[in-house]
Amino acid sequence: MSDSRAAILARLRAASHPAPAPVTPYRPPPSQDLTAGFMARVTSVLGTAERLPSQAEIPAATARYLTGLGLPPAAAIAAEFAGLDWSAAAIAALPPPEKASVSAAVARAPAASAETGTLLLSSRDPHGPWPDLLADTYIAILSEADISATFEDAVTRRAGNRLPRSLHAVTGPSRTGDIEQTLELGAHGAVRLHVLIVP
To answer: Is residue 70 part of a domain?
Structure first.
């Protein structure tokens, strides 16, 4: 090794190199009202949301949403909500599909992040992730108590210390800009996302 190289390395080794200060990731200030914060974020990512006074209002709210967009008044209903009065809302309640796609689906989203407006679905859910993957319109039913402040909190609440085989983070309608940088909705999942928030 040359004398000059050895001198440079000796100076580097002798110099004080304090560890860089840890970087704290930016976080927006937490919303005092997690439901309002979640609704604002969902709207900002091309989704829509509505707060309902009770679960019994789900069929009527579904009918309002579908007919307001000129969509057929029919939806695949997760078993949990099959007992609601869909006929009174003039909605044809279809069984959950096994493989084929459906026009609309109504199913629970078991966790959400107010910070990002993200719903979390997993392979552990009773109905699996099919509502977002197989339906053009996913009408998610979300309990206010299932909204967490941050994305990490939502993942922890949903998965705990044992991650499921698959965990789907749904932030607004599915989209891609891969082809000619043109935004296309529904590329890998639902074209429309509407969240009905219940107490």
So the answer is: yes
Residue 21 in any domain: the answer is no
Question: What is the count of structural domains for the chain?
Answer: 1
Q: Which residue bears the tokens 């509502």?
A: 131
Q: What is the DSSP string of 18-56?
A: PPPPPPPPP-PPPPSSHHHHHHHHHHHTT-EEEE-SSGG
Task: Evaluate if residue 136 carries a pLDDT over 70.
Answer: yes
The pLDDT assigned to 61 comes to 98
| Containing structural domain, residue 59 | 31-198
| Angle (nearest 5°) at CA 152 between 185 and 25 | 95
**Which residue, 77, 79, 75, is CA-closest to 104?**
75
Select the more confidently predicted residue: 116 or 1.
Answer: 116
Question: What CATH number is attached to the domain comprising 90?
Answer: 3.40.50.10420
The pLDDT assigned to 25 comes to 73
How many whole angstroms separate alpha carbon 46 and alpha carbon 72? 21
